[in-house]
Each structure stands twice: as C-alpha cells, then as structure tokens.
Amino acid sequence: MTNDDGIDSPGLTTLAAMALEAGHDVVVAAPARESSGASASLLGAEQDGRLIVAPKSPPGLPDDVTSFAVRAAPGLIAFVAAYGGFGPKPDLILSGVNRGANTGHAVLHSGTVGATLSGATHDIPGLAVSIAYHEPRHWETAAAFARPVLDWLAEQHDGDRHARVVNLNVPDLPADQVRGLRKAPLASFGAVQARIHELEHGHLQLTYSDVEITREPETDAGLLARGWATLTQLRAPCFDADAVLPEHGPLPGPTGADPVSAPA
Are 79 and 118 in contact (CB under 8 A)? Predict the structure, then answer.
C-alpha cells in the first residue's frame, strides 16, 4: 500500500491498520515525502543508478509490518511493486487515506489515484481512499467506509477484478453523520476549479476556487459536499475498439517516386 502524503501520514497508518484488521498481509511502500499531484508519474530519485529506498515504519504500525520509504512518486512505487520490488507482486493496491477530496476529472492529476491506475496496467486491482478535508479530524471514518469496499474488491474473481480500480471519497465527519455510500459519476472537474489569469511580461497566474455544487449535485463532488461518501470505478488507459479512426494506405513518396510501402 502507498499514500501520496508520504510515509509519515496518519492516513496511511489508519488505512494499513484497517487492512491488517481485515486479515490482509500488508506491505507498505510509500513516498519518503509528499507527492501530491504526481498522477501516475514514474518520477523517482536515483543514486548510482538505483532507486533510493530505506526501511521505515509509519507511526503507529506494528514493527513486523514490512515498510519502505521510497524516494519516488506513488505511480512509480506501484510500478516497481508489480515487478516484485518490495516482495511478491501484490494482489491489491491500497492508496491513501489522502488529505483532501479526489473528485471529478481532476483525479487525472492525483498521486493517490495514479498509484492504483499504475497498478491496474499490471493486472493489480486497487482502492484509492481520500477524506474531504485538508486537516482531517475523522480518519477512522474513512477507514470504516473503506473496509466494506476492500472486502468487496478482494472477493472479485479473475476476469472481472484484475483491472478494477475504485475511488472512494469520504466526508470528514463522524461515521454516524455520513449519509451513506453512493456510486457516483465524476464531476466535470473536481472540488476546486483552476483559473488562468494573464499578467504582464508573459507571466501567468493560476488561482483556484470552489466549484458550486449546485451545478452538478449528483456527481462525486456534489454528493460528497452534501455528506455522502462516494464510490467511482475508474479505468486505466485501454484501447477503444469501437472508435472510428482514420486509416489509409501508404503515403505518396517524393515527386516521381513510388509510394513508400509499409510492412504487412
């Protein structure tokens, strides 16, 4: 499991403790420092051609849980795990609990979600978990809602579960004050919207503002803002066999020359 807030994140400890309680064998491999916004980047720090990895336990986890602090983005950590870099190839990737919501099409930029999508390209299912506040007080609520989703994901069978990635967002509330768990489509962007302002001398200013939830009340961002935990299934990059795309034969060569032939 991993977390883009880094190996010292209380969210990672909370999620790992939940997985242990659920009976899973847990191996932690998380960024040595915060990697928010890393998407599925394969960025990492090397020394003498080797990825920098050090044994380090997240605060509060038992000492016998194998744990690594990795100088890399979560997507690269999942990639390395798929090739046995931290032990046997994992059966499932848990990522989170991330500080702040990961909703809408902005999940494209999330390191938390990026780790699970990276794993899915290697046939490893994944669960990304986020809590909708940047200074959370109710980590245990996120874990409580993640537990049945983890159980459900682990029960899926070959041919159905191998590419399954689900994104869970939970309000920062006591568990009994959350309205429930809802399947939700992605909002058009996310909890916040970026705006670009052109300044003098070619400089640009990037600002963020809250999205009005009344515009998309039945999306993940809208439902989350109204007190629901939301669950969205995501797809890793895949070939769309139904797409209509332009195709043609060899392009003409230089003037007077025969067309260049491509191999069959």
Answer: yes
| Residues recorded for the chain | 264
Q: Is the pLDDT of residue 223 over 80?
A: yes
Average pLDDT rounded to a whole number, residues 171-185: 98
Do 123 and 144 touch, CB atoms closer than 8 A?
no
Q: What is the chain's mean pLDDT, rounded?
A: 86
CA nearest to 213, candidates 198, 203, 202, 227: 227
Residues 75/40, Cβ–Cβ less than 8 Å: yes
Angle at 186 between CA 40 and CA 162, to 5 degrees: 55
Query: How far apart, in whole angstroms, are the C-alpha atoms of residue 128 and residue 135?
Result: 18
Residue 12 corresponds to which tokens in the numbers above? 């990672």
Beta carbons of 109 and 39 less than 8 angstroms apart: yes
Q: Rounded to two decimals, what is the model's pTM? A: 0.84
Secondary structure of residue 192 in the 3-state scheme: strand
C-alpha 97/C-alpha 168 separation (Å) is 10
- DSSP 3-state assignment of 140? helix
Task: Tell me: pLDDT of 131 over 90.
Answer: yes
